[in-house]
Every structure is written in structure tokens, then in C-alpha cells.
Amino acid sequence: MVKEIRSLCIAVTFLALACSSTYAHENSHYPTATLADYVFACMAANGQRYDILQKCSCSIDYIAERLPFEEYERIEAIMQAQQDIGQRGIFYRETQWANDNVEKLKKIQAESTIACF
């Protein structure tokens, strides 16, 4: 009876760990298109070689570990809006919250460069 209870407890523990790991992974998942887009842009800036592919992949993985996708996506939208030449662009270029968000991503990107390149 004790062995059966112990086995059941171990099984429940492994199931709980598997579920929590899957949940964490699903919530931090970056879509494949986003990963590919980042790697292509990184390679365009740093060279079209296999070693650069590895370094750029490391870079986006580093970012994904530290920044949830929803936040990454929001900051990317802010950066695109900052490039607009009209009123909308001024709003995103001159507000502190927008600049703070962009700086957060740039800081993590700089850290990824140190870690991966």
C-alpha cells in the first residue's frame, strides 16, 4: 500500500511539473515568423554566414527568455510608429513611456550581443 501511494505521489509530481513547464513555454512562445524575421534582419546586418545564423538565433532566444512575446510585439510596434513622419510618430518619439519601452528592448538586445557574439 505504501509503495502504491509513493508511486502515485511521484506520478502526480511529474505530471504537475510537465504541466507547469508546458504552460510556461506556451506563454513565452514567440511565433516562428517572428523568430525568422529577427534572424533574417540580424543576418542582413551582420553577414550571411552560418556562424552568424547561430549567433542571431542565440540573440533572439536570449531576448525571448527575458521578454514575453506580447511585450516584444508592443515594443516593435512602438518602434515602427516612431518612424512615422506625422503626428502619430511625434507622439511615439516624444513620450517617456514609449522611449522607456524601446530602451528596455535595446538593453536586452545589447546584452544578447555580449552573450551571443
* Structural class category: mainly alpha
Model regions low in confidence, pLDDT < 50 over at least 5 residues: 2-27
Binned, the helix content reads over 70%
Radius of gyration: 20 Å
What overall form do the CA principal axes indicate?
Answer: globular
- Distance, first to last CA: 56 Å
Describe the structure.
- Helix 4 (69-82) packs across helix 6.
- The longest helix has 27 residues, at 2-28.
- It contains six helices and no strands.
- It has helices at residues 2-28, 32-46, 50-66, 69-82, 87-94, 96-116.
- The chain folds into two domains: 1-28; 31-116, no CATH class.
Summarize the structure.
The protein contains 6 helices and no strands. The protein has helices spanning 2-28, 32-46, 50-66, 69-82, 87-94, 96-116.
Q: What keywords describe this structure?
A:
6 helices; single chain; 87% helix
Protein topology:
Blueprint: H1 2-28, H2 32-46, H3 50-66, H4 69-82, H5 87-94, H6 96-116
